[in-house]
Amino acid sequence: MKKKICSAVLVTALTVSGGLHTPSVSAATPIKITIDGVQLTTDQAPVMSANRTMVPLRGVFEALDAKVFWKQSTKTVTATKDGTTIVLPLGSKTATINGKSVTLDVPAKSIKGRTVVPLRFVSESLGEKVGWNASTKTVSITTTNSKPTTPTQPTTPTTPSTSISPVPYVNTKVVGQQGNGNDLEISFPASASTKGISQYRILVVKASNSNPFNVNTALTVPAANYTAIPQGSSNYTITLMPQARDTDGALIQKNMNYRVYVLAVGATGYNSALSVSSPIVSLGVVATASAIATDVKASDVSDNGDGRDFSVTFTKASDESKLSNYRVFVVKTTSAGSFSATEAAKISSSNYTTINKTGSNPTTRLTNTTRDTSGELITTGTAYTVFVVSITSGGDNIGISAGSNSLTLGRTVEAPSITKVEDVSNYADGRDIQVTFTKSSEESKISGYRVFVVRSKASGDFDIATANGLASSRYIDVSKTGSDRTVTLATSLKDSGGETIVNDVPYRIYVMALGSGSYANSLSSASSTLTLKTGDQTVGNVSGIAVSDISDYGDGRDLQVTFNKASDESLVNNYRVMVVKSINASKFNLSTANSVSSSNYLQISKNGSNPTVTFSAGSKDVNGDLIKNGTNYQVFVLTTGTGNASGNNSLSGASSVITLASNGATSAVNTVATTNSASTSTASDITFSFVPANDTGISEYRVYVVRADQAGSFNLSVANNVAAANYTRIAKTATKVTQALTTSTKDYNGNAIVKDVAYRVYVLSVADGSVRSVNTLSGASNDFTITTPTVAPATNLNATAINGGIKVTFSKPSGETGIASYAVMLVPSASSGSFSLADANRVSERNYETVTKGVYSEWTFTTTDVDINGAAIRSGVAYKAFVLSIADGRVATVNALSVASREAQIIAQ
């Protein structure tokens, strides 16, 4: 007997389940970028530089639909979008936007061939809203067109009279390497007006056909050329099927640029609405570190004066399963800083060398006809760097190695190889750096070695010519001993730019072999980046400092400060809140903060929450002057360490400028908090509370719900202009307020509160206009998230071979909460290792057996039944069983998949 799962429940589970992810926890959380709430993957991760967040320019700008161009001769990036032209020279702190100069906090620089720029530059150049969440290390970009208006509908004899809203945005992600629709993941939130929507249609459009692509065109696309999704969730994440087609009817394929739209289809009496397009997406092979060659070395092995002198060795990729060969590129060292996988793909086959994979680490000699990437024959007297690119069986460029040592052909000795660099002490100078390197194999031809310390930002231009020209104060000499060396550098050593070696600056180390007699010097590859720190561990910075003028005493009692605590307080001793005159703020640094007298700052203990503090009548600024009206101030927070981090403090950035004045400001509320009952998985589970500080001059309180990734830009000015429908009004009171949100509560932008997104609550104290005239905004509450309810999986799964069949038994979850039924599936063992929840959700109802909830927990498959692929079950084939717990769509909406059973085969009768 075969039973069917409710189709609506299964499709709902299919579309929702892909959106659930459990974040991994690590000691060093990488910086993430989200665009309109969806994470962006780039080939160069964001980094911190000079206390500024640096993001990859090309990856971010192209995701925002800008075109990016690189000019090697001038080392200049040019980006264009919608009539805006941005020109940015590498290494410069000045860029131009439509011919007007702008200044960057720190200069743009190149990391592994990718240009990175300060986060603020993205906002200033393209006009998008950019936020930073220090606790999650997330850069959030909100595009100006993320909330489109409803497109014009086609005229029909019976035009519907009721409109629906389009979905706010569409994002895409390449998640596979198959070269078809299954590589493409689409995510979007539900329309704000779910009533009247019959379904959503995912439309994949060739980028060349996307202008114009409107709702009229979308409505005429045949059903075979879009993916239909039933309406029923608040957020959708869908991976397309391998046979998915674009709107022209062509199969989705590699090396084609697409835009994705979502059409909200109106039911009878409602219009349809088309979203704005996603950023351009192109399928391709996803590079992984395991598929990239490492430890590339170049050696001068002869004296022919051409490519025959050139020997290249490298360590093969640890996973060669997708590779057919490697390509070896010889690049002039002067151009190596900008050479990338993208550049490699443009090089003619006559200007690189192909090496087939052999399962061993390759060594190859070039030929007298070998050319560099510019097409010139390899010759003596020119410095070269070698790169190795991994190539798949389909001819795709899957990733590029790091560059080799720089090699100039001639009578050149083999360069040493750096194996380790370490911070071994706490002198805050060269004595903290210890370098280990392997000796040159030709020590009979050298007189010794020189060690150079180069700032990372200058390492792209550091080559053998630069090293040969440095003064003796900028390197140390190391004698040869016949063995590999480990040396600790000297206190007097300067870096290659002549500056003192200090803490908190990223460096790279180079070692040069000094040729004797007629032999030329040879320079190693750069070491990994080393940044000196004092102490064994450091404490994290606070973020989100907000300052408010909350009263009219004319002294410190008017100044209220809120900030987000350090993300990890395990090493935090306490916080010191310091008030600095704005004219001195640019010179206020960690050293200055550490020396401030205890009478000139406010010290507060950590308590696990984000602090809100108010100064007292006698409070002073860091210079010892009383805080008063009429002076421009900025606030800093010094985080002090304890234990292994004792004495290793960290200083926040400055707050905005505040000038105390007699402004009739209301008092901000205290102790804003939320609790989550998690009983209904709706906004009504959330209860907020706050304590009024002083209700004098207050007419009411307004409670706002703000997405955590948008909290960085939510301030008093924004709060004062929020529409009345988008906040909760609370009557004036002097006692603690505790109240639940409702299922219809919206965030401050007017969007429905959705599941699996973090939010915070703020409270605005509204002035009555007579006693007080200025509103005041509280600090943020703790984060809350409404979670998507998931059913529990079956356990104790067992598959047993019997005559003519396979018997499957399992244990049901306790209580079977939220479960409608179970789908019992047989999967061929050969493909069971990759069988996932998403795969199970896609299995046709004809290809599994249904077990009713609360009845029994076993099923016997015979040769009249089929596996998940619809193939008849037969002897001689090994299978594993899985059980899918099916959500009922009310208590729970996400299915759960059991682990696989042991392998079983039918015993022939």
UniProtKB/TrEMBL annotation:
Residues 35-141 form the Copper amine oxidase-like N-terminal domain. It holds the Pfam family Cu_amine_oxidN1. Residues 1-27 form the signal peptide. Residues 141-167 are annotated as: Disordered. Keywords: Signal. The keyword Signal applies. This is Stalk domain-containing protein. It comes from Paenibacillus nicotianae. The lineage of its organism: Bacteria, Bacillati, Bacillota, Bacilli, Bacillales.
